[in-house]
Amino acid sequence: MTGETGRVALVTGASSGIGAATARLLAARGMRVVVNYLRSSTAAEEVVAGIEAAGGQAMAAQADVREATAVERMIEQIQAAWGGTDVLVHNALTPYAIKPFQDMTWEELSGKLDDEMRAAFTVTKAVLPAMTEQGWGRIIYLGTGLSRRPRAGMIALGTAKAALAQFARYLAQELGPRGITVNVVEPGPVEDTRMVGVFDEELKQRQVAATPLGRLARTGDVAQAVAFYASEDNSFMTGTTAAVNGGMSMY
What we know:
Blueprint: E1 8-11, H1 17-28, E2 32-37, H2 41-53, E3 57-62, H3 68-82, E4 87-90, H4 106-134, E5 137-142, H5 155-175, E6 180-187, H6 194-197, H7 201-209, H8 219-230, E7 241-244
Parallel strand pairs: 1-2, 1-4, 2-3, 4-5, 5-6, 6-7
Helix pairs in contact: 1-2, 1-8, 3-4, 4-5
Family: Belongs to the short-chain dehydrogenases/reductases (SDR) family.
Protein name: 3-oxoacyl-[acyl-carrier protein] reductase
Organism: Saccharopolyspora spinosa
């Protein structure tokens, strides 16, 4: 995929998990990758160092993606180094309560909805001018299968990510004429991520049993789907959702 060479990709929440795996894969395919992080500067620098050791180009950029001024500073930092952002992978996960609706406060539910949409709104607004100017862009949002398939205690995350998925479809319709595609990657449970950390072993085994491919997703599985959406090759898919869950969503 030589067409990717030199494209600038901003990956939010890229110091670990799916974000880090995606940053490494996009860099391996020739993109210059911005590893955004909130607090984990050491982890982010380790991702950058790993990419550079493999011959790729990367830089770390700190920003709370919910805050417009912080995101603007980050975009200015990227522009000074590499110019406009061609690809946005919005992966950063804001905190959320895990509890039944019965025990949840409005602040817990509305807080997650506000954080989720504010972050997506803010980073998308920030990258659009450069994408619009060049008539080319790729936006990929990380969702979750929980937005379609409820699981106990996950109402805040599932509802917020369902809103994000519909937001993406509206953007796909509006931004298509500008040459910008907008898609969503919805993983099922993914090994070595915070979300799977809340599973007990019995629940994890039940999830595996419900998956035709017989295992949970790995971060690299999700990164591959993101990288496809981010590529030059993917020029005619927009407003779509990729379910990366080993077939679990068929049931």
